[in-house]
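About this split. The held-out portion is used to measure sequence recovery: a designer receives only the structure tokens and must propose an amino acid at every position. Recovery is the fraction of positions where the proposal matches the reference. Here is one held-out target exactly as it appears in the evaluation file.
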């Protein structure tokens, strides 16, 4: 907003008139603080996910979903979900996938989403990369997959990441935006440096090489979402905030 025409004026008006600002990550909360929004006006309430709709499935159901997608039963499947735009750095995933398939010839990379880079990315993609386009319901794809990959240069707090973690997927991500609020490195996900194809490749191969570690990280990822990022918890926090604004001074 501060870079937009009249943005600073609008922000000053919001600081004066708004009852509260909701930040979805600690990074955004810090930006609001730096812009002069006092702590009394700021509330950190993260995005939430439906942990019933997005949940792991047992092996028979996973194989049924894979059959619907035309997957080999033993294929190792990684998935990206998001807009096909430069900041998401899908060029990294496409560049490393031939190297992944040198070791795992049945490995599949699903790219779900649409955007201005779609044709360019399709032209650069090799064997084993499949573009799914925009999905009205991404949950079957997540439940059929083994890994979630997000190599972005910048993020807020991506709902796609929360949904993948809720499905029990181990995630390889860059340590940007609100992602460090959600993931503890090598516990419920793996961080790699931004703009580092080699590091991303090594993290992917590590998880594919160690299914027991992969499963353990996935289980802890789901536990993390249930504990702090369920849609019910988000709704409770919003209700509490509105109650405090409607009845200032009263205990929630």
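Reference sequence for scoring:
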């Amino acid at each position: 907003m501060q870079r937009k025409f009249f943005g600073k004026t609008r922000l000053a008006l919001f600081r004066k008139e708004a009852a509260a600002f909701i930040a979805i990550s600690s990074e955004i909360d810090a930006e609001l603080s730096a812009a002069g929004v006092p702590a009394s006006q700021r509330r950190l309430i993260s995005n939430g996910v439906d942990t019933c709709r997005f949940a792991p499935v047992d092996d028979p159901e996973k194989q049924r979903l894979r059959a619907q997608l035309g997957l080999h039963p033993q294929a190792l499947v990684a998935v990206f979900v998001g807009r096909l735009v430069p900041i998401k750095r899908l060029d990294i995933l496409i560049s490393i996938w031939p190297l992944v398939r040198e070791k795992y010839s049945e490995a599949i990379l699903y790219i779900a989403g649409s955007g201005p880079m779609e044709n360019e990315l399709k032209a650069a993609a090799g064997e084993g990369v499949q573009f799914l386009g925009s999905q009205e319901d991404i949950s079957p794809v997540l439940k059929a997959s083994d890994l979630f990959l997000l190599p972005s240069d910048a993020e807020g707090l991506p709902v796609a990441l929360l949904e993948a973690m809720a499905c029990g997927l181990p995630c390889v991500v860059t340590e940007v935006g609100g992602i460090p609020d959600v993931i503890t490195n090598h516990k419920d996900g793996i961080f790699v440096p931004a703009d580092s194809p080699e590091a991303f490749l090594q993290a992917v191969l590590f998880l594919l090489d160690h299914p027991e570690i992969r499963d353990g990280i996935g289980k802890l990822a789901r536990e993390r979402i249930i504990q702090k990022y369920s849609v019910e918890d988000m709704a409770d926090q919003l209700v509490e905030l509105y109650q405090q604004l409607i009845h200032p001074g009263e205990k929630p």
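Annotator remark: Strands lie at 21-23, 42-44, 77-81, 108-112, 129-133, 147-150, 171-174, 190-192.
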